[in-house]
Amino acid sequence: MSTNTGHDGLAAALFSRNRRAILGLLFGHADEAFYLRQLVRTLGGGVGAIQRELKQLAAAGIIRREVRGKQVYFQADPDCPIFHELKSLMAKTVGVADVLRAALEPLAEQIRIALLYGSVARGEQTRTSDVDLLVVSDVSFADIVAALGPAQQELQREVNPTVYPADEFRSKLAAGHHFLKRVLGQPNVFLIGDKNELAGLAE
């Protein structure tokens, strides 16, 4: 799946960040259903904001809402008149996270946190935007770069990983490191780990 198309930035113009993230996840995994807290953990947004978007998308017939026991699940609605168009649009504009997540999957057991920041996470990327990635892991920088190589080729974009061992990340965070404060103070898209894992590292 390549995102090197003239459609970069199109999703940002059409949809809010939360809606874009929800549609990207649900239409990128159209055969899967997700419950609310799962969506919040994965997307990194606020519960209230995610709930509002889900309610509106379900009311519009774009996604399905289904109660199973005590959980409410959401899924892309294949009966939506523009299902295939949305799926194609999301693949072309929001697919960066999935490509990188798959690339890092073989190392996932050794990675505490992997998140996107910068223009891609803000949904403001252009065709020439680099992809900024923060990784907290004891895996070497060289091994992270090697794992990302095929993804970089597929995306046809420069992927810039910043890698910190867990202990170094924790100490820099405690010291109020400028770079980390800036990165974590802006929108992030979690590839591995979530807000809870990040909070645990900060303790």
UniProtKB/TrEMBL annotation:
<protein>
    <recommendedName>
        <fullName>HTH arsR-type domain-containing protein</fullName>
    </recommendedName>
</protein>
<dbReference type="Pfam" id="PF01909">
    <property type="entry name" value="NTP_transf_2"/>
</dbReference>
<dbReference type="InterPro" id="IPR036390">
    <property type="entry name" value="WH_DNA-bd_sf"/>
</dbReference>
<dbReference type="InterPro" id="IPR002934">
    <property type="entry name" value="Polymerase_NTP_transf_dom"/>
</dbReference>
<dbReference type="GO" id="GO:0016779">
    <property type="term" value="F:nucleotidyltransferase activity"/>
</dbReference>
<dbReference type="InterPro" id="IPR043519">
    <property type="entry name" value="NT_sf"/>
</dbReference>
<feature type="domain" description="HTH arsR-type">
    <location>
        <begin position="9"/>
        <end position="95"/>
    </location>
</feature>
<dbReference type="InterPro" id="IPR011991">
    <property type="entry name" value="ArsR-like_HTH"/>
</dbReference>
<dbReference type="InterPro" id="IPR001845">
    <property type="entry name" value="HTH_ArsR_DNA-bd_dom"/>
</dbReference>
<dbReference type="GO" id="GO:0003700">
    <property type="term" value="F:DNA-binding transcription factor activity"/>
</dbReference>
<dbReference type="InterPro" id="IPR036388">
    <property type="entry name" value="WH-like_DNA-bd_sf"/>
</dbReference>
